[in-house]
Amino acid sequence: MTTFDTEKRIVRYGDLRPCRTAFIDAHTPGSNQKENFTIIGGGVSESPDQYVHIRETPGFNIGAAGQPPKCRNSLHSHRTAEVFFVLKGRWRFFWGRWGNAGEVVLEEGDIFNIPTGIFRGFENIGTDYGMIMAILGGDDAGGGVIWAPQVIEDAKDHGLVLGGNGKLYDTKKGQSLPEGVAPMPLLSAEELKQFPEPRTAEVVPHHVARYWDMMALSDRQPCKVIGEHGKLRDRPGFEVEFLSRNSLADTMYSIDRHEILMPMRGHWRLRWDGGSTTLNPGDTAAIPPGLSHSLAPSMTGEASLYRVVNTDDAAGTTWRG
Question: Which SUPFAM superfamilies match (predicted)?
Answer without folding.
Answer: RmlC-like cupins (SSF51182)
